[in-house]
């Protein structure tokens, strides 16, 4: 009898016309023993479920692959392919009119709409990596009369005729292939990889408006939780003392004047949504730097600043009114959106900032005579170049065209107000952004897909020279990131930020170099050299991250490194995966590339509890690392 627990007699016992003893409180077992017993039961059930699922996967793979012709996977691999790309916006089909394969792009349904993510984006890279692993597994399977029986072909791409012959003959060997434990394990790993690659499409492009709006507590949230004047002044001073040097967005004197007016009750500033966005985000950045510098401060108050800023920015006036303060508000919002892992939101905010910047005229030199003071002009130039840097880098991250065309931008570089110079990183990143703009235009844009092989080869060589010249000029400000002599002062407030600024400079250079040489093709004269440079750049970009993680815990635990992985394309990791899959017998595949992948997974595991972005990247990285390890372990068996 299932007791309803009503007093004095439950309904179930009443119908049986008997005394109800179930409603009485029963003596309970010790809480610890009951919890331990529950865990044992759960683990036993999970073990049985995993065993059953493994058997089902093996049976389904054997049945489906043996009875269904295998699909022709795109041969465009992580680093490059033998075919040139066509228009990135067109749906995929086996071949286009001129005979070349269409590029592997990813279109993701979000709320019944589609988002375009081009060939340099994380979605396309993960899709290509999964296709490469599945194709190489098939090519390494034994089937009579096939060249693939000798092992993995050590090319980035495979010709159409070879692929068709492989697909046509593999069906007979599938059942025997899946009968071996190592092949079942590999196929199971690929199945998990496919699931991860599919799900990541719904994770990362999330716009995030509803989630953040609920957290901000409605439209009134912007006027809630304003700190005391003394606290606000300390946080603002911290921002201008440290963060402003490498992220100069405001004229300090004007901002501090507005701060005083705000606390004196100026109604105009109290109702200015853009000011509230900037004010709360400046305090958030100042607080963040204090936390990473081990200062005694409660980091939980940062949540209030973030939600206040979001509640204020959620206003059409901020997005539409052509005001400098609105551009600054949207720019700061975009930077924060990268940090909280909302790339779709980040792109929207950055695009809005770029459009307003052109509406205000920040992209052009001022008329003569100049209507602005020296300080006002420098503030306008610094704001524009911050938007420009974001625009060019996110263009590569998303595989989308930039919002600020270079042919229409002639603003001079910022010079500073004469009191405090800008960080060398800021000027260096502006120059790098111009090269990144060329990388997208000459290698990843729709126009680039129509280039002949010789033209693309020339573009790769030219961009490589531009990047190396930039690095030769900029490396003077890069002292080995994370080393004791570069830490400025391990206990000092600027140490983590100084190390991060140097790390960002080299990491951005290596990522850009990887994106350039990844587009080389086997029929180019520079193929062998580009192949080597691409892999070396990918390895170095992960190595320098590991060096900083090992040498400086403040930077490693701050989340700034996770910001780098979300801000720049995650290309290097997939390059390492590609190297392992294409060359499983190479000594470096197991001792270098796979170890670098594992070290990155280990770091993301440490950070997953502190960062939503780290948790999502961990699922991607761990899935690909698992496949790479399985492939290395079982290859040749």
TrEMBL record:
Residues 81-99, 147-164 have a biased composition (Polar residues). It comes from the Eukaryota. The keyword Phosphoprotein does not apply. It is found in: Nucleus. Residues 346-420 form the Xylanolytic transcriptional activator regulatory domain. Residues 81-100, 133-166 are annotated as: Disordered. Keywords: DNA-binding, Membrane, Metal-binding, Nucleus, Transcription, Transcription regulation, Transmembrane, Transmembrane helix. The keyword Transmembrane helix applies. It holds the Pfam family Fungal_trans. This is Xylanolytic transcriptional activator regulatory domain-containing protein. The lineage of its organism: Eukaryota, Fungi, Dikarya, Ascomycota, Pezizomycotina.
């Amino acid at each position: 009898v299932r007791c309803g627990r009503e007093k004095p007699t439950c309904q179930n016992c009443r119908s049986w016309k008997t005394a109800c003893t179930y409603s009485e409180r029963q003596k309970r077992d010790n809480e610890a023993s009951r919890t331990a017993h529950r865990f044992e039961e759960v683990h036993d059930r999970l073990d049985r479920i995993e065993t059953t699922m493994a058997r089902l996967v093996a049976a389904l793979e054997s049945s489906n692959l043996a009875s269904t012709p295998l699909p022709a996977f795109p041969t465009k691999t992580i680093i490059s392919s033998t075919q040139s790309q066509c228009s990135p916006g067109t749906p995929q089909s086996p071949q286009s009119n001129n005979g070349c394969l269409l590029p592997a792009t990813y279109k993701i349904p979000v709320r019944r709409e589609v988002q375009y993510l081009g060939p340099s984006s994380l979605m396309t890279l993960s899709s290509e990596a999964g296709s490469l692993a599945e194709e190489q597994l098939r090519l390494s399977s034994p089937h009579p009369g096939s060249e693939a029986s000798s092992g993995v072909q050590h090319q980035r791409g495979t010709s159409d005729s070879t692929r068709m012959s492989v697909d046509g003959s593999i069906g007979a060997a599938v059942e025997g292939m899946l009968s071996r434990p190592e092949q079942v394990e590999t196929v199971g790993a690929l199945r998990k990889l496919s699931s991860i690659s599919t799900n990541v499409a719904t994770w990362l492009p999330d716009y995030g408006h509803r989630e953040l709006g609920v957290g901000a507590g409605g439209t009134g949230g912007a006027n809630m939780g304003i700190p005391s004047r003394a606290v606000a002044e300390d946080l603002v001073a911290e921002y201008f003392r440290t963060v402003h040097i490498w992220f100069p967005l405001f004229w300090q004197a004007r901002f501090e004047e507005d701060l005083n007016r705000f606390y004196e009750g100026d109604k105009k500033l109290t109702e200015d949504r853009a000011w509230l966005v900037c004010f709360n985000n400046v305090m958030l950045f100042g607080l963040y730097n204090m936390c990473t510098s081990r200062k005694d401060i409660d980091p939980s108050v940062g949540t209030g600043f973030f939600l206040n800023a979001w509640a204020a920015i959620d206003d059409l006036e901020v997005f539409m009114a052509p005001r400098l303060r609105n551009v600054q508000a949207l720019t700061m919002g975009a930077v924060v959106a990268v940090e909280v892992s909302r790339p779709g939101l980040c792109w929207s905010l950055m695009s809005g900032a770029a459009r307003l910047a052109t509406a205000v005229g920040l992209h052009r030199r001022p008329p003569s005579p100049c209507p602005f003071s020296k300080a006002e002009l420098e503030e306008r130039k610094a704001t524009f170049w911050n938007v420009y840097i974001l625009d060019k880098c996110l263009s590569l991250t998303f595989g989308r065209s930039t919002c600020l065309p270079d042919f229409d931008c002639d603003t001079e570089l910022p010079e500073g107000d004469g009191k405090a110079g800008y960080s060398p990183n800021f000027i260096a990143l502006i120059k790098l952004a111009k090269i990144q703009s060329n990388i997208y235009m000459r290698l990843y844009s729709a126009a680039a897909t129509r280039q002949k092989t010789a033209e693309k080869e020339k573009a790769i060589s030219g961009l490589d020279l531009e990047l190396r010249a930039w690095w030769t000029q900029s490396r003077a400000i890069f002292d080995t990131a994370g080393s004791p002599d570069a830490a400025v002062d391990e206990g000092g407030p600027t140490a983590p930020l100084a190390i991060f600024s140097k790390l960002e400079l080299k990491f951005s250079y290596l990522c850009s170099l990887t994106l350039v040489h990844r587009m080389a093709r086997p029929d180019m004269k520079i193929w062998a050299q580009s192949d080597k440079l691409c892999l070396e750049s990918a390895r170095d970009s992960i190595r320098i991250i590991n060096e900083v993680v090992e040498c400086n815990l403040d930077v490693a635990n701050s989340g700034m490194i996770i910001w780098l992985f979300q801000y720049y394309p995650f290309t290097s990791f997939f390059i390492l995966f590609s190297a392992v899959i294409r060359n499983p017998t190479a000594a470096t595949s197991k001792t270098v590339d796979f170890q670098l992948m594992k070290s990155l997974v280990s770091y993301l595991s440490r950070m997953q509890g502190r960062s939503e972005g780290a948790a999502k990247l961990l699922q991607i990285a761990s899935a690909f690392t698992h496949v790479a390890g399985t492939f290395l372990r079982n290859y040749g068996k």
